[in-house]
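testing teh design pipeline on a random one, pls ignore if ur not involved
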């Protein structure tokens, strides 16, 4: 087995490990999104509750003040009956009118506060509905994650052992290069060489499509303990058996 053969074995199992893990990762990401949505709904609910409480407290305050106003009006009306002269009567009447205006402004304020409370209560109902819906989605996402984790657990353990075995026969330097490429390219650490035109000796990298210098291809033959990288994307190059056979007669 050449280094390239060993790398290809690792490449295949590494991709399987990554694809299995990504099935769990996507479920984890989905659950996180749901959790964040739920957090924002909870925040909305807290703000709504604070505002509703504030508005209701405002209403209670205004009602207390209106109570005092009414008591004062009743008192003034009694005083009006007892008025002994025009001047006194006019003064009392003027105060009654002023205080009535004040009462009116309180009524208007209460109306505004009550409208706000109604709006806040409507919003609260909407928040509750969204929270219920989101909770269901969250539950589904949690279950999905559990299922996926258990589904892959056994297979992943097997593949990880297989991956370790495949990695064990590869020299450290080559392995580091492979791992770093695999991380950068989401598992696509290697790329096959494509024959564009055999006669004209034109070849390209299947991953990045770049035309490869002839030297990259010819040096693929006869090497055992080394590998060739794509000059553009750096991926480790390999030849499919068919391509190898097709190219070999011209390169021998
Ligand atoms: Zn490339």
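output:
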């Amino acid at each position: 087995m050449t280094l390239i053969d060993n790398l290809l074995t690792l490449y295949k199992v590494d991709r399987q490990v990554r694809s299995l893990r990504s099935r769990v990762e996507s479920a984890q990401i989905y659950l996180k999104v749901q959790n964040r949505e739920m957090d924002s709904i909870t925040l909305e609910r807290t703000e709504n509750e604070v505002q509703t409480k504030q508005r209701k407290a405002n209403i209670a305050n205004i009602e207390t003040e209106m109570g005092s106003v009414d008591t004062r009006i009743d008192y003034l009306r009694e005083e009006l009956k007892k008025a002994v002269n025009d001047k006194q009567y006019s003064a009392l009447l003027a105060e009654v009118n002023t205080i009535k205006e004040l009462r009116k402004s309180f009524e208007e304020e209460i109306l505004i506060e009550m409208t706000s409370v109604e709006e806040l209560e409507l919003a609260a109902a909407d928040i509750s509905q969204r929270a219920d819906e989101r909770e269901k989605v969250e539950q589904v996402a949690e279950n999905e994650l559990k299922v996926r984790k258990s589904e892959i657990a056994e297979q992943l353990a097997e593949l990880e052992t297989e991956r370790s075995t495949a990695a064990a026969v590869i020299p450290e330097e080559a392995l580091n290069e492979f791992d770093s490429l695999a991380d950068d390219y989401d598992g696509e650490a290697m790329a096959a060489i494509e024959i564009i035109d055999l006669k004209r000796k034109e070849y390209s990298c299947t991953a990045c499509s770049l035309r490869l210098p002839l030297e990259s291809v010819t040096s693929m033959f006869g090497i055992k303990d080394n590998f060739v990288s794509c000059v553009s994307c750096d991926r480790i190059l390999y030849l499919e058996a068919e391509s190898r056979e097709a190219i070999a007669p011209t390169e021998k």
